[in-house]
Amino acid sequence: MTKYLVFGHKNPDTDAISSALTFAYFLNQQGHEAEAVALGEVADEPAFALEKFGFDKPRVVKTVANETTHVALVDHNEPQQSVEDLDQVQVDYVIDHHRINGFNTAQPLYYRCEPIGCTATVLFKMFHEYNIEIPANYAGIMLSSIISDTLLLKSPTTTQIDIDAAHKLAEIAGVDLEEYGLEFLRAGADLSKQSDLSIVDGDAKNFIMNGQTIRVGQSNVIGFDEVMKRKEGLLKVMEDKRQELGLTLYLLVITDVLESTSIGLAVGDDIRILEKAFNTTIEDQEFELKGIVSRKKQVVPPLTAAFGE
């Protein structure tokens, strides 16, 4: 029997981790052999959800072709965000909610991508479509994904489908949606034990825009005062990573999860392109991103358009 390795993107966030675990469970229920793995260490926010609902952290892998010939991707499809040897294995499944870019396969596959707030919401629908019961612990990590990706249902990416799924999953998990949601977001926004590197690169993704590689990181906070005291160190880490990875631009979006707004920090060859993309003014490599909270819907599209002009 083929063993599937199931994984989300590099620098995995809550949705990448929990959706890998959840889809591996889904495949196992269908009679396949599947294991969830991670393409990076589990950060504090997903770790909180895993501990809350009784899961061990998935093991971290750097390559997969040495273990299997078949894989399933969750919460991503762009090759530069995936495992290094993706071209050496067969992708049989993709479950996602992002743009499709640079992805192709030699064989047909099951590809499910929906314009909704969270991959876990797509999986919620699949469980119902295939009449598979969602255990309480899996409902808990799926709910955590929705809370994380939609900022407790306040992000512009949120759909009614996400809202309905969150309420049902909270009921199955036996938690109060609002109470747990705030507890979970506060845990993820505690930067006191995080290094500058973790804040900058803990949730960062590469995007190819008009042939140039742009890295966009996002860090959730409650209030900007404490994190901005570390601005100099954050910018140094960003420039070091830019040089290391050969990036055109590195953008860090710092999001206040309670106020639903953000501040941007940037390093690069020409960061003024960000002023056009976001109709903002850059001062000392810092700029306001008023009302912007979604990398997928509010950051990547205007940035892609700006680089395309």
From TrEMBL:
Annotated ranges, domain DHHA2: 181-307
Entry GO terms, CC: cytoplasm
Classification via InterPro entries: DDH_dom, DHH_sf, DHHA2, DHHA2_dom_sf, Oligoribo/pAp-PDE_c-di-AMP_PDE
Protein name (record): inorganic diphosphatase
Coiled-coil regions, chain positions: none
The UniProt record lists the keyword S-adenosyl-L-methionine: no
Reactions catalysed, as given in the entry: diphosphate + H2O = 2 phosphate + H(+)
EC code: 3.6.1.1
Database matches in Gene3D superfamilies: DHHA2 domain (3.10.310.20), inorganic pyrophosphatase (n-terminal core) (3.90.1640.10)
PANTHER family: BIFUNCTIONAL OLIGORIBONUCLEASE AND PAP PHOSPHATASE NRNA
Molecular function per GO: inorganic diphosphate phosphatase activity; metal ion binding
Sorted UniProt keywords: Hydrolase, Manganese, Metal-binding
Co-factor requirement: Mn(2+)
One of the Pfam families matching this protein, by short name: DHHA2
